[in-house]
Amino acid sequence: TASSATAGKRLTIGLIPADGIGREVIPAARQVLEALPSSVLAARVGFVDLDAGFEYFQKHGEALPEETLAALKSDCDGALFGAVSSPSHKVAGYSSPIVGLRKKLDLYANVRPVVSGAAATASGARRAIDMLIIRENTECLYVKDEQQHEGPDGKYALAKRRISERASRRAGEMAFAMALQRDGMRRLMDDADRTWKGRPKVTIVHKSNVLSVTDGLWRETVRGVHTGNAAYRDGVDVEEQLVDSMVYRMFREPEAFDVVVAPNMYGDIISDGAAALVGSLGLVPSANVGDNFVVGEPVHGSAPDIAGRNIANPIAAIRSAAMLLERTGHAAAALAIYRAVDCVLAAGNVRTPDLGGSSRTSEVADEVCKHL
Amino acid sequence: TASSATAGKRLTIGLIPADGIGREVIPAARQVLEALPSSVLAARVGFVDLDAGFEYFQKHGEALPEETLAALKSDCDGALFGAVSSPSHKVAGYSSPIVGLRKKLDLYANVRPVVSGAAATASGARRAIDMLIIRENTECLYVKDEQQHEGPDGKYALAKRRISERASRRAGEMAFAMALQRDGMRRLMDDADRTWKGRPKVTIVHKSNVLSVTDGLWRETVRGVHTGNAAYRDGVDVEEQLVDSMVYRMFREPEAFDVVVAPNMYGDIISDGAAALVGSLGLVPSANVGDNFVVGEPVHGSAPDIAGRNIANPIAAIRSAAMLLERTGHAAAALAIYRAVDCVLAAGNVRTPDLGGSSRTSEVADEVCKHL
Ligand SMILES: CC(C)[C@H](C(=O)O)[C@@H](O)C(=O)O
Ligand SMILES: CC(C)[C@H](C(=O)O)[C@@H](O)C(=O)O
Questions:
Q1: Beta strand segments in A61-123, E
Q2: Which residues form the Isopropylmalate dehydrogenase-like domain (chains A, B) (predicted)?
């Protein structure tokens, strides 16, 4: 049952479907949020439809309109973002709206749980996986500070990669805190239901054998979060992986990872790799988290090849909605969604094509609602 | 039989075992090179032992001594590099010798064939893979131009990522030329032996949805190599993949890739991922290629956990030696090594632990020699 602190409150969620299948999976997530019984979510949910995306850019000359940002800040408790298409050629003035959103709302960590379940295993994953990827979400190459120059041998271009102590510390804090929190949750579970059975562990990803200064700062700062906190020191193990080895090991022994913390670009790459291991990108949710705001976002892209056909898997978006609820103080409602999704996946009869089925996006959403 | 052009010539190979298992796999590769019968390699092979590595740095204060570079340039036709250890903390003055070697000898492309075979399949790979990764080898974040600064919120560090038209063009040239060459080779094979059955294809990896300037230049330059050459235009298909999707798709449908061309850092990450797909990093060779020199290098690292125990898989190093022969005009000798390795893998009784066996490094080398 919903806690009294949130009972009767209003929860306003900004919906930004953006491009491609974002326009199918965000409505599916909305449908599930609306179907939550008041026994698990006492707050009344309201929605605000907001614009952004590449298609919007093509019509209006901007990918992330000021009104969207203003509405998020003044009217919303959180938001759901769909997916954004990539221009197939360089387009002057265009800049990814999700990258902009992360920076402008200071959503400094991207939390990506990658968990295998019955359905995932059936569709190709071979092993139990229960990884939580914490991706630094504001800097690294994503500062997008790039210039092109003309040199004696032709054109060349330079991009800046920025790593700061502050951003590294915040990502590290999130990683260690989540490692302990996950451990607490696991203690409430049966041993048979637990994938990770060891002590909580954080794997720090970097490439400091090449980037000794930037990744050196990253690694030392994240390590510093561990050594500077008694609860982390006593309760959480730390290890390091070079990003190339990380991808290798993740494929060879994914069960060896608990919480993984990575700079922005490595985190982007690793989370797609991890998604492949659990059977489909269509299953993996994320939350862009800041101190004051959260934006749920499926890890998948806009999938132009299947857009508009009502066959995209809405589960990543639905799970992202649950992550949004979890982070806005509605844990019971989040849990109800996670469980309903797990039931649908375990039953296996209602599945989109990415999982080997032939169900439609809307049928999966309906089915999840039935299990709430 | 060896071609008359190379008969009687001398082939001098620099050996740089460097750290860890590099000291076990390079001698194994040397043993195989020495065992080549004169019917396949008419050149007399000589070796020059050269220093480099992190351990060397700890003793002598430099990781890539001038003498090594000088000897490579004046005395050697090519070289084999083992592996290099990464310092576990930041070490002033240390810089990776393999990265230095690539730059100083202008070895602008790193050619990494990732091919599944009987042994690979037995040890976990599920599908036929026959990918050739061309990794740009001189720039991107590997220019190692980094600085640390003090800001109002604490320390921050900046690294430069450089992408030039020239380096992109050279990597692109290599990719399209190799795509055609592979196709020529395949036409000589039985259909049943061919993994890739379509037209030659080059997949350009980038992240231009975020790095529109640097990766925009990369992508347009590599595309330009294709459109600017009639043989490439007529004979090779081109596609693009964002690096995150690339890692995802590579896991889901590795058989969909022929030649893959990537900027330095993405190439580093992708090739480790691809190695996981064929069962072991211990199988995957590479060649660092320039216009005037080639350095064979196993894709694996120095593996400190198993170093000194004579259990490292020498096949990646042995195959790297074959790539070196191929690139220095000794194709028949290279082929003899590739075939001998394939026989040993197919027989399956002599395997190192990474492939599920219990043979020693030296036993694998002996076995390969028997099949030459
Ligand atoms: C669309 C793109 C800019 C984005 C990213 O790279 O962060 C996406 O891949 C993601 O993972 O959310
Ligand atoms: C050792 C390291 C500097 C190197 C690289 O990143 O290039 C290695 O991972 C490789 O792939 O050859």
A1: 78-83, 109-115
A2: 12-368
Ligand nearest to the CA of A273: 1
> Is residue B57 one of the residues assigned to a domain?
yes
Sheet holding B78-83, edge to edge: B44-49, B10-18, B78-83, B294-296, B287-289, B109-115, B130-136, B259-262, B201-206, B237-242
Tell me the longest C-alpha to C-alpha distance in chain B: 70
**Ligand 2 atom 5: the closest Cα is on which residue?**
B268
Domain boundary among A277, A302, A334: A277
Whether A212 is in the pocket of ligand 2, judged by its Cβ within 6 Å, is: no
Q: pTM of the predicted model, to two decimals?
A: 0.94
Residue A99 CB less than 6 A away from ligand 1 = yes
Instruction: Judge whether B247 lies within some domain.
Output: yes
- Whether pLDDT at B2 is above 60: no
Active site residue B244: yes
- Give the residue-averaged pLDDT of A73-90: 92
Q: Which of B47, B104, B57 is nearest to B78 (CA)?
A: B47
Q: Is residue A117 part of a domain?
A: no
| Set B51, B56, B77, B142: catalytic member | B142
Token pair listed for A144: 């997008």
**Catalytic: B268?**
yes
Among B252, B285, B318, B263, CA closest to B111? B285
Residues B181 and B266 in one domain: yes
Mutate to test the pocket of ligand 2, among A209, A211, A212, A249 (most ligand atoms within 8 A of CB): A209
User: What's the rounded Cα separation, in Å, for the pair A115 and A17?
Assistant: 24
Residue type, B148: Q
| Count of domains for chain B | 2
Pairing verdict, β B44-49 and B10-18: parallel
Task: List pLDDT tens digits, range A187-232.
Answer: 877 766 777 778 999 999 999 999 999 999 999 999 999 999 999 9
- In 3D space, the residue among A342, A282, A337, A319 whose CA is nearest the CA of residue A36 turns out to be A337
- Tell me which residue of A83, A204, A81 sits closest to A134, measured CA to CA: A204
* Single residue among A277, A294, A324 that ends a domain in this structure: A277
* DSSP H or E stretch at residue A235: helix A230-235
Distance B138 CA to ligand 2 centre (A): 12
Shortest CA distance from A99: residue in chain B: B210
Cα A99 to middle of ligand 1, angstroms: 7
**CB pair distance less than 8 Å for B210 and A141:** yes
pLDDT one-digit tens code per residue, B132-171: 999 999 999 999 999 999 999 999 999 999 999 999 999 9
Nearest to B282 by CA among B107, B28, B101: B28
Residues in B touching A265 (Cβ below 8 Å): 207
Whether B116 is in a domain gets the answer no
**Residues across chain B:** 372
Sort out which chain B residues have CB atoms less than 8 A from A155's CB and list them: 164-165, 217
A142 is catalytic: yes
Residues in a beta bridge with B330: none
Enclosing domain of residue A233? 126-277
Q: What is the CATH number of the domain that holds B131?
A: 3.40.718.10
